[in-house]
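Re: the pair you flagged

First of the two:
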Amino acid sequence: MHTIGAIIKDWLIGLLTGWGVPVELSRLLVEVVAWAVGAALCIVAIMLAALVFIYLERKVSGYIQSRLGPTRCGPIGLLQSFADVVKLLLKEDIVPVDADRALHTIGPILFLAVSALAYVVVPWDEGGTVAGRVDAGIGVLFMAAVGSMGLIGIVAGGWGSKNKWSLLGAIRGAAQMVSYEIPMLLALMCVVIPAETLSLAGIVEGQKGSLIAWNFIRPWMWLPLILFLISGVAEINRTPFDLPEAESELVSGFHTEYTGMKFALFFLAEYGNLLLVALIFSVVFLGGWLSPFGYPDPLGLPGIVWLLAKALLVVVVIMWVRWTLPRLRVDQLMSLAWKLMIPAGFVALAGVCAAVLLGWA
């Protein structure tokens, strides 16, 4: 991926300079084009991930609950996700009479846009980051900052719906996301400090070598790993942390008044966030695009294959948790974050700092 991207980039720069465009302006224009193409590919990746994960989740849940899952729509139910897409496309877009139409429309769009924007700093392969310059300086901070903006879409949708259940779900979502961002950031700091970089690509570079160089092997990274995984599940509103939706309490939470493609955008963003959490987890703890057989990869597979394989494993684990554990109560949700995970995050940070000072990390 890096080689092909570099060849195309150099060709475009040479083409523009041949037309009389200054070199620096040519580089800037090529960078802008790369951002645009990369962003489009990220949105395509989210859409494809949603189609795959909808089918995969039904099959995983069916296996856990001794059911078959989709079987009728296409061979072994493979076309079920496409049938769902057609169903959502054909549904009427209904907006409540008293709703704020602007906020009601902006909510799902913003929620999906924020989800897609975070993908630009994911290192898909060696040198394969869409926003390489951003990642080189503030990759981790950019990902955390953009991820926290998702609650604006949830609040906009809940408030704009003029529905008490939607508003309660939006408030829950805001409180939950703000609370669980803290232990997630503490877990990320535990990775950033020994890596001595805020670049996600740099964190992967620090795990080069063999499997024992990966962060999940190091004992002082075990607590940050657990904290990040739990916080990630809470940030994307997956069971047992799906309190903002909680259909047994709030009808359907913040997207109660949504139908058709607006609902589909929320649905798409949630699966996009699921993939994003799995990718970031794979990058910071599982070696990212690195092969488990060493560097360079003796099998010669592209790094993106290894990254997606690791992310798929994490996604299956998160689905497994969803269909195994019951939903928490609101007080349990907040107590877990503030009374257990945040103190544990500081303990983990102290442990990593001690490992760095002792020369172990």
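Second of the two:
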Amino acid sequence: MRVFLSILYALLLAALVAGEVLYVEYLVPLREVATAAGEVALQPLPRLRRARVVFGGDVMAHTPQITAAQTADGYSFARSFEYVAPMLQQADLAIVNLETTLSRRPPYTGYPMFRSPLELAVELRNVGIDAVALANNHICDRGSSGLLSTIEVLDSLGIEYMGAYADSLARQPLYISAADLTLAMLNYTYGTNGLPTPRGMVVNRIDTMQMAADIAAIDRSRADVVCVVVHWGEEYQRRPNRAQRAVADFCRRQGVELIIGSHPHVAQPIECDSAARWATVYSLGNMVSNQQWRYSDGGLMVEVVLSRVGDAAPSMSVRVVPIWVLCPDYRIITPSVGDTLTMNAVARSRYKQFMNDCQILLK
């Protein structure tokens, strides 16, 4: 073998000396191609990142709800959320519209000037709520003390918030993680029932110039998805009005991928891009309240599965779960529970009517 290799080496050397360099020049590019192909093969594929985000509608606390939650030593709202807790807890991120103020001390009141016991927020934390929207028409119900108390309670429980702030320095987009993705969230309201924003504090209003500036200021290197939660529309109207559509179109032009609406206290339609690049939920309706009449006695929970491959644009899929509130203990009922849950004939009829109304709306 050594003799053979020596002869082969001698022949190659003779060929080089004789000027057969074309052969060697041809070998070099082949070697380079092989090396480049190996490097491509070794490069990792772009990573798929996913997150499951669940949105719930208006969390309210009318006086009958507060009465129903009263216990011997305080308040407990656990009964209301027990059937939706698994869906919220299994999400990577869960968000609701908190349409009341919070306080550690009584008196507690419902409509028209909401002031709820802190135990409501404790239960939200217990069932997996990570963040709440505060920019709504009831955030100023109790003036500066109500807004400060609400923020203090949320901070103490580790619940993030957006849309209303103790001062202008705190007014920033909410960057919040969901599994391997990060959302940048903004929140705005049409108004505060004619009540002024307390001096020195901030409640975000629907103002397209300010909204455009806020969206442009988002650090897209930190955010995979931009989500705007908007308190808008007309109460008890089951279709979005022209103003809602105009604001939604405006937000999408600014690069917002996900728009979540509240305020009408009834469910409204959902629109999604055919390429799965954006979604608009015009109104989630009520998550829990004492509005026990047709269309307002429930709402929607929406699960948005966000996906992103490498640096490509994110995509999303939307799953809708109708929810209905069963009195007298204000239990939030999903179809998987309500279809077999024992309830009286009147409740069963109203439950079926609500679910049928949702099915028609969402076709």
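The domain at 49-361 is CATH 3.60.21.10 (Purple Acid Phosphatase; chain A, domain 2).

-B.
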